[in-house]
Design goal:
About 45% of the residues lie in helices and about 15% in strands. It is an alpha/beta fold. It has a domain at about 1-145: NAD(P)-binding Rossmann-like Domain (Rossmann fold). A seven-stranded parallel beta sheet has the order 4-3-2-1-5-6-7, with helices on both faces. It has a four-stranded mixed beta sheet with strand order 9-8-10-11, with helices on one face. β2 (about 30-35), α2 (about 40-50) and β3 (about 55) form a beta-alpha-beta unit. α14 (about 315-335) packs antiparallel against α15 and α14 packs across α16. The protein binds magnesium ion (MG). Magnesium ion binds near residues 147, 148, 149 and 218.
Length: about 375
């Protein structure tokens, strides 16, 4: 029996993790839960999974007082005062499924106590990955990627010597707007950008998939997690999302991880690590799929990918700044304040300002993030 804390339990990944735990009550018990906004769902989850601790920034007191209505033993679920504190309570695995840089200090807290961190929070890896890897080594903890592509690379690397790895290839479906003519992209509505053809995910990541900024973040994420340079990572367009990633070895051979597109595989592989789950996802029927398609990414259609790769080459400051600016821009797009194409236009103006900021200390990440946000808000004239 493993205990699991989920940071961001009401989001798309968090709910899928709880679905896995619900399926396997003999293997897992929930230690802690946190939600950013969705208090109603958090309350339901607390009722169902009886965690010992929870955290909710918006309405902790309200939740606690309404909990009193249905809890006989009022002491069994305790409200903590920060995500970091929740990450610090003993649990065999902490799943970080929060969105954005908000997950930074919680990730640090898990690794500082030598814990296992199953991490889907890619912005934190992008901004602080080098530091997280150092903490993992120093305190003997473990970081397990939850992002599908990185989970696939992680699986392909099992038992392979790193020096015989030549290339890592991550695939991209192309997102919700992959078939929309380029000249129409400036007129795209949030609803259209949120309709992903393959994956059901949170709003921010779905828009990031439509711009392919998500894939750029994933390249940086792979650089940090697997400690390789940007030149050894490639992006491959692959509409069917059946191959999640490939690793090419020095002998020219490739290993790929294939499955039906369902995050449950990454989640169960992380929860059962170093083992595997049983029936984590439906079996893959290649005869039904028939054909798989591949292409190079079109950098004109996807300028956000090009900018993210430029940031990856430039250094940590540029990566932090673009990630922060993108959080602001996607939010502004979803609120109807800017056009879809403004996301790339603005990111293109943020990048040069931070190009020379390299080797960022852990303590300085949030101030660079803040500067990038301020600059982005000043550009779009909205908060
Ligand atoms: Mg992914």
């Amino acid at each position: 029996m493993k205990t699991v804390t989920i940071l961001g339990s009401t989001g798309s990944v968090g709910r899928q993790v709880l679905a896995c735990i619900r399926k396997h009550p003999e293997s897992f018990r929930v230690a802690g839960l946190s939600a950013y906004k969705n208090e109603d769902l958090l309350r339901e989850q607390i009722e169902e999974f009886s965690p010992t601790h929870y955290y909710n920034p918006g309405g902790a007191v309200e939740i606690q007082s309404s909990l009193f209505d249905f809890l006989e033993d009022k002491s069994y679920t305790k409200c903590l005062s920060s995500l970091e504190e929740l990450a610090s309570i003993p649990a065999d695995i902490v799943v970080s499924a929060v969105s954005g840089i908000a997950g930074l200090w919680a990730a640090v807290a898990v690794l500082k106590r030598g814990g296992t961190l199953a991490i889907a929070n890619k912005e934190t890896i992008v901004c602080a990955g080098r530091h997280l890897k150092a903490l993992e080594k120093k305190y003997g903890g473990k970081m397990i990627p939850l992002d599908t592509e990185h989970s696939a690379i992680f699986a392909c690397l099992k038992g392979e010597p790193q020096k015989q790895v030549r290339k890592m290839i991550i695939t991209a479906s192309g997102g919700a707007l992959r078939d929309v003519p380029m000249e129409k992209l400036s007129k795209v509505t949030p609803e259209e950008a949120l309709y992903h053809p393959v994956w059901k995910m949170g709003k921010k990541i779905t828009v990031d998939s439509a711009t392919l900024f998500n894939k750029g973040l994933e390249v940086i994420e792979a650089m940090r997690l697997f400690e390789v340079s940007v030149d050894s990572i490639e992006v491959l367009m692959h509409r069917e999302s059946v191959i999640h990633a490939l690793v090419e070895f020095t002998d020219g051979g490739c290993k790929a991880l294939m499955s039906v597109p369902d995050m449950a595989l990454s989640i169960e592989n992380a929860l059962y690590y170093p083992g595997h789950g049983v029936d984590s996802v439906a079996p893959l029927d290649l005869t039904k799929i028939g054909a798989l398609h591949f292409a190079q990414p079109d950098m004109e259609r996807y300028p956000c990918l090009r900018l993210a790769l430029e940031a990856a080459r430039a250094g940590e400051g540029a990566c932090i700044a673009l990630s922060a600016a993108d959080e602001v821009l996607v939010d502004a797009f979803l609120r109807g304040k800017i056009k879809f194409t403004d996301i790339a236009n603005c990111l293109g103006k943020v990048l040069p300002k931070f190009r020379d900021v390299t080797n960022v200390d852990l303590e300085d990440i949030l101030s660079i993030d803040e500067r990038a946000r301020k600059y982005t808000y000043s550009m779009i004239g909205a908060r």
